Amino acid sequence: xxxxxxxxxxxxxxxxxxxxxxxxxxxxxxxxxxxxxxxxxxxxxxxxxxxxxxxxxxxxxxxxxxxxxxxxxxxxxxxxxxxxxxxxxxxxxxxxxxxxxxxxxxxxxxxxxxxxxxxxxxxxxxxxxxxxxxxxxxxxxxxxxxxxxxxxxxxxxxxxxxxxxxxxxxxxxxxxxxxxxxxxxxxxx
Length: 189
Ligand SMILES: [Zn+2]
Prior knowledge:
Layout: H1 2-27, E1 54-59, H2 71-83, E2 96-98, E3 104-106, E4 125-130, H3 141-158, E5 165-167
Parallel strand pairs: 1-4, 1-5, 2-4
Antiparallel strand pairs: 2-3
Helix pairs in contact: 1-3
């Protein structure tokens, strides 16, 4: 019977691998345009290492953004504002930013906590932001697909339950990410 046991074990291993494989594959699908693609300025001193235990949805607006200036330049403008005298943060506040085509751009490295002008501590949060103002804009299908893929990939990578996915306004007094932005199937309403 050793041969049978071995075969059965192999079969079980194969079934287990098949069950896990799609999750593994998705976990590696944090496909982003790197910081070099938008010519990001280097981070400054003051980054705080953190351990991600949740994913939080943001928008960058107001203002609204309809694609001009193009995403790379717009990201540089946002980073410059965040690193500038008004905010004084070490880097762009968000970890991932999604444009109108559903392209995901790398912001602050995920290893470091983001920043906020509102009253909550963003340590532990993976900050996913959609470019624009989703009180006045409607997210399109490409953006929602990218958002869903990114949130699911982050959930797999950091082993996060559904309850760990939220919106900025779940943590602080803010309209962010706007009344029109949620992830159908992942978040209510
Ligand atoms: Zn926000």
